[in-house]
UniProtKB/TrEMBL annotation:
Repeat positions for WD: 626-659
Protein name: WD40 repeat-like protein
PANTHER family reported in the protein's UniProt record: WD REPEAT PROTEIN 26-RELATED (PTHR22838), WD REPEAT-CONTAINING PROTEIN 26 (PTHR22838:SF0)
Organism name: Laetiporus sulphureus 93-53
Residue ranges that the Swiss-Prot or TrEMBL entry lists as coiled coil: none
Record's compositionally biased regions (Low complexity): 955-966
Gene Ontology BP annotations: proteasome-mediated ubiquitin-dependent protein catabolic process
GO cellular component, as recorded: GID complex
Ranges of compositional bias, category Polar residues: 515-531, 584-599
Amino acid sequence: MSLLDALHELSKEQELEGRPLIYSNERSQFEDDRDVPTVDEHLQQVGADAFNKFQRRMTNLDQELRNFANAARQLGSSVGILCSSVQLRERLAQLLWLFRENAADLFPRKVQRQPREMFTETRIHPTPKRKRQRAPSHVANPTVVESLDPEDFPEQLESLAHDVITFLDCLNEFPEFNDEAVNASILSFEGDLKYWASCLKAYDGQFRYPAVQRYLHDLTTEMGGHLDSITAALSVFIEIGVPTIRFAQKHASQNLLNLSTVATFFSAVTATTMQFSYQMTETPLEKAVNAFWFISLVFSIQAAVNSLLGLTWKQAMYRSPGHRVPWWVLIWIKRSPLVFLVASVACFSMGLVLFAYSSKQDPVTRTLTSVFSAFSCFGLAAVSTWFISERWIFLRHSGQKWLADVLSETKIQVCSAPGIKWIIYEPRALVWRVRQWCQRRSRIVREKLSRLTSRTARRLKRFSTIASSATEKVDGSDLEDQTLPSCNSPDPVSPSRPRMSEAGTGPLLPVASVRSPTIATSTVTFDSRTTLGEPAAGTDSGPSGSAKARFKNAVHSVIMLRQGTSSTSRGLGLPPRVPRRQRTNSTEGNGSKGGTSSEGPVHLLKASRVAALVPRLRALETTQDLAAHQALVRHLQFSPNGKFLATSSWDRTSVIFRVGESFSSHRVLAQPSGFVGQVAWSPNGSTLLTKLNRGVKVWTEDGVCKKTIDRRRTVQSVAWLPAGEAFLSVESSEVVKMDLNGQIIDKYHFDRMMLHDVAVTQDCQWLLCVGTLMASSDGLHPSKSRAEKQIIVYNLRKKDIENRVPVLHDVRDITLARDDLVALVSYENKAPPQLWKIDIFKDSARLSLRHTYMPKVPVDFAGPSYFGGKKDQLVLCAGKAGDIHIWDRESAALLHHVRAQALGGDLTCIAWNRAMEQPFMFATGSHDGGVRIWTTPKDSLAPAMMDLNIPPSRTTTNPVNTPENTPRSRPLSLYGIQQQTESPEEETTFELQGPMDDSAGAESGNI
């Protein structure tokens, strides 16, 4: 739980109980400022809760390490992981004791110191029967070294990094299982530990300073994430990894046990067989038989013994891991049983074949024994060779290739050799050419036979056609005599059939008539002239002319039929549907208006300085709403004399307003070269600096640009020197001192730092800087945690760093009070502002944390925080959501809280008018380009606003404002055209009115 989350929960509990954040158990009256309650009690409780959460995380990790050690005892070669886990537990116990001592110094009322003996309360006490027996080293419990000191923090963190890597190496010595989650979490933790240890070496001798102690306490939150990830990974490893490793080791042991059983059985077979030949020693053949069988017996016995030896070695907890054993020992234990067994089988087979010949067995028996023995030996040799080759390929290519892949590549390489290639491909080519020649010859023969057969068939067909045509001629003349009178009839064939429609509705002829194949039917149906009721022409013509006319009429009718069909299809077709566009109407909602509200224990603060501040702060309200810019307001600042207010925006303009009862636009400063990130008034209020991305512009209060200084480097911020004769430009790891003409006076370099802001004391002796550490002294970078940030006190006269304060939050701004005794440091995101006191010891400055200004709920702060009120007695800061917090500087009590609903927009920055003590006045900038002026209105204005029923937060000072216009009094833009939009993104649509470009939108998206 972070600091702010704990405070949020605590504040919720207090609100439920009906108590404000600033509370007291008794309703007493505070007589002076010493009675004002502070948030110290809350910080004590939150800090103690953070340490207790860290302690629980350490305890959980220690418990998982203990469970892992118990589970790992079942594994072979587990002594290394057991010893490393015990060493890691001891280191964690020592770090936990150091962090407890650190937390006890910071929060003495909530965190108690714990003696070293309490860390060893879980030690195994020996029983009375075994008083002299010591527990093994791998089961010892963690202890705390007596000589531990807070100055040992860097050394302990570095040792912890070494211990976690040793634990990881021992864990990876089990090749049966590899957990990437454990590796990633431990490696990330090791990287951050080395980074923290390297950074903390710069604070040697300062580990009892409160500032460094708070940084160490904040590191517990960063370490907590690593501890949780390692604990979760170890839990998964115990559930999955240990059983997997156990199964793999058991499987390997089972193989050796099976091998030992087979070797023992085979040795018994060999010994039994030797009884038939051990007395046969006369001939050389008989001697050879005995020699092979004796050798087989020796190999089988060695195989059985070596298998049992390897089984015992694999199951031993104290055995060395594989990479720490000599290669010949490893080969002898793992490979010799199988090799000996194979050699024993081969020798027995050779002796058996020779025994068949020496005992003068039947030739068939000798032949079969020899053949089958050779076949089995060949298979055994082939399989053994394949097995050895697979092992060799695996070791050579690290498992990236299979043996079959290597054989295929070898085959391709062999076939690519010139001689081998000719032997393989030339015979194939010759065979292919011969086959092609044979195919061509056979095709020619087939073609000749086909032509001869077709010629003969045509001749036979010709003779048959001549005979049939003579017969058809006689029959056709008779048929023509019968049909001609019907064709020359004066009556129309179909007098009632109408003509086809001109509109293309399709033919009226039946489809069956079109498909009729007979000539007689065609002459009746497709005669177009008979369709018109006229007599057929050419009735006096002969049979030849009548046949031609009938054929022509049939063709004409078919053409008309097709045209009519296409016209019908077009007539029946529907027009394509035209898509209809749907339109939607956008609606606009009216925003709700709300007033400011603040809850505070006013009745507890009477008769004190703070009691007088609360009513004045509650009376603050928005008196003017200025439409200053067309884009986000990046920064604003009142001049030291209180006469002017300067603002800067992402619309590439800066506006100078004249301060008064009614603010008016004094000058608009054009910045066409880039965005304005900061405005800074000189101490006398006569000169204004505007910071660009890579330069600085110097303006007079009347808006005259005196100088444009191009730095050609990214400028982070600018700050005036107290006398106003020069200013400082923060550029990466350098601070450049320049005069108003841009001439470089001096440079101050900060190694390995990315500076963000600086401030100079009134005597120009010390320079206060805030920045991010880019790398440690050893060049290390964080792997997962946040980078270290520093608040630096630099002696300008000695040009030396006198004090460094490490912080984890993203520090961005630092402001000095008028008395130079305290500095206000602002952070990004949800980190609250802090007040640091500058202590002077023997001409040396040192920073110490005075207050942390806590809000009621976690808030995303926007822009830098400011001092306010008389003699900088107030601290105010704005939230991105639109709320404003005002604290008392001395007591860190939250005096006033303006809620976001009262403002009606997101805030980006805030500035206090330090020249006006009565009434209070400050300004806020927002995303929509508006600037609101907050002050205490005159008593005469309150009744008027009540009569008009206008909320004071929306009151304007524009005398020409009408109901149709916006309530903001917008000054004329740079180009003489008034343009008002609701968001910075809308400015891109008005290319002629505003100089916004794509880079503005991109930068706006990063906010």
